[in-house]
Design goal:
The mean pLDDT is 93. By secondary structure, the protein is an alpha/beta fold. The protein has a single domain, classed as Maf protein, CATH 3.90.950.10. It starts with a strand and ends in a 5-residue tail after the last helix. The protein has helices at residues 10-24, 49-61, 98-108, 174-177, 182-193, and strands at 2-5, 29-32, 68-77, 116-127, 130-143, 160-162, 167-168. The radius of gyration is 16 Å and the shape is globular. A 7-stranded mixed beta sheet has the order 2-1-3-4-5-6-7. β4 and β5 form a beta hairpin. The structure holds inosinic acid (IMP). Residues 9, 44, 71-75, 88-89, 101, 119, 153-157, 169, 181, 183 line the site of inosinic acid (IMP).
């Protein structure tokens, strides 16, 4: 089965492919919408991960010739009342990159004692403009006290310390992150629901 995936984020796409390989074997292939860069992106107006994932999946599925999934994901920090949350990609501004977002997070967390946080991922599957299902995954960790470590992964990974690994997500290879990540949990749930697990 071929599933289209609506993302322009290379970090996400790499992980999606690895996760599908791991949980779906050779029964699924994931492909991006070839012309996704030519399609104007929808405004992410939702206030929840679910709303934004559904909005993206519905919108992009109109351009796909089969089922398509989109995810909305981000980091929720308890001491910041769940921020940056759905604004994770644009925490430091509309076109901010990972470095600026991470810098701002460290500034906001300066001197803060409670550093618990979680990554959240919601995947919505849609076909011809209609949502077919939605799955959520979460992983608990804490924000590092220092500048963060590691060059693996993307986004906030170097700042996300995961106790069971005694390391940040930026320090572990993608093959290890996928065993526990929010994205894997959501995608694995979708693969199981579609009975595509090998
Ligand atoms: P989205 O593309 O609107 O879903 O935004 C996702 C943003 O959340 C990314 O740009 C990252 O900043 C952050 N994020 C989501 N998942 C991860 C992850 O697995 N590692 C690090 N950052 C993540």
């Amino acid at each position: 089965m071929k599933l289209y995936c609506a993302t322009t984020n290379p970090g996400k796409l790499r992980e999606f492919r690895l996760i599908v390989e791991h949980f779906g074997g050779d029964r699924i292939t994931v492909d991006t919408l070839h012309n996704i860069r030519d399609i104007e992106a929808p405004e992410e107006t939702g206030s929840t991960f679910e709303e934004n994932a559904a909005l993206k999946a519905v919108y992009y599925s109109q351009f796909a010739s089969g089922p398509l999934f989109a995810d909305d994901s981000g980091l929720a920090v308890d001491a910041l009342q769940g921020a940056p949350g759905v604004y994770s990609a644009r925490f430091a501004g509309e076109h901010a990159g990972d470095a600026a977002n991470n810098q701002l997070l460290l500034e906001r967390m300066h001197g803060v004692h409670n550093r618990t946080a979680r990554f959240v991922c919601v995947i919505a599957l849609a076909e011809a403009g209609e949502v077919k299902g939605m799955w959520r995954g979460e992983v608990e960790g804490r924000i590092t006290d220092d500048d963060g470590v590691g060059t693996e992964g993307f986004g906030y990974d170097p700042l996300f310390y995961f106790e069971p690994f005694s390391a940040t997500f930026g320090q572990v290879p993608a093959e290890k992150k996928l065993l526990v990540s929010h994205r894997s949990k959501a995608l694995e749930a979708m693969i199981k629901a579609l009975r595509l697990n090998s």
